[in-house]
Amino acid sequence: MSPSKPFSDAELAAIIDGVGRSRNLPHPTAQDSTRLRSGAASGSLPQTRTETTPADCAALVPQDPFTRWADKDINFAEGAMPPAGGQSGPTSTIMIVLRSADQDVLAKADFGYTDDLLSRCSQFDLAYTESGRTSTYALQLLAAPPIADRQHAFTQVTSPKGPGDFGSVGLRVLDGTLSITLALSVATRNSEADAKPALDSMAELAKELISEAGGPQAPAEPSAPNSMTPEQMVALFKGMTAPGGETVSLPQAGIIGPPQGSTPTVLTPPADSPCTFDDQAYTASLAGSVSGQGQIQGATKMDYTDFTAVNMPSTAQPPYPFDARAERLRSCTSVQEILFEGTSRTWSPVAALATAITADSSYAVAYQLSDGTGQWHVRCGARRGTLSIEAASGTASQAEAQSRADALASFFDAVFSRAGK
After folding, report:
1. What is the DSSP letter of 309?
2. Which residue ranges are recorded for the region named Disordered (predicted)?
3. E-state strands within 68-209
């Protein structure tokens, strides 16, 4: 029986992840929809336009991702998955988009075409423009296997086709309040038979997604109460400049999920050694927080500062993870940084810097890496209430480190003021 009630973003993501678990994939495969949606709040999503020849064939083409992320009327989730029993790769990973809304709204948005359009649009051209740059494609409809209420399939290749260009096969399925769009790249597309293995793989996945959607849905874990949504965090930095006039951007923000295999209910400082800097463990300790990564662009392309903003849940209680990190960094003369790839590198020497910022907790250090470049790095952080900001930048010499730290402290102060902290 087709679903009759719309699924939320979180429920759609759970459907994708549920199929991933049934395929014994080691990690969740759905992306964070809140992070993708937050990009619309920054105003940084590119302007796009999709045109087809004939024009009415556009009803057969999926929305571009930027339009989809900004659409608040239809819920969505995205993910990627290798075929059952297969290895992930450019021609084996199926891209997934699930959308959901009231049945009539969804059918009109994603399948708003008459059956005769399928015969009139058996072959058509597509021009997709993003930020003023246009790409052209040739599309051909394929016979889609019967799966649910409605379905159609197509191949897409660049036009004109260049050497080494991949094509893709797409499958779109409507099942009640669930819309499924799948795509898989193909290296060879000289005949409809070349597309059949990809179409068969996607048809199998579509059936698994429909089956997962029709099963009992585990209640979504309630989000921790937070005074700032991902969209509000992005909006906080919109149009902002650093004290020196540099451009500030934070394009997306999202909610930090619990570590794999756990559901923590309180924030706890990461259990690492006193002079270890482990971002993965630190992030895991902030489950439920809203987080975004941004950049301050200097006068040249290589002159930039990366920063991370984190707003903890309203229910967070001390000791706060940021405070524990700040206390460690203030007292260390050498730090072992654990990288996400499992490798490490040493900060040595590490020198504490003094900054004039009013905060509940803060730190500022300058250090060198054992990479032979001689470059000095500055890392600073501050917390007021639930909001913390950390920034990292490079400098040509240790003498410049203090002025860079002072500039970052002024930036932090401006952000806190904007946030009403």
Report:
1. E
2. 18-53
3. 75-81, 94-100, 123-130, 133-142, 150-158, 167-175, 178-186
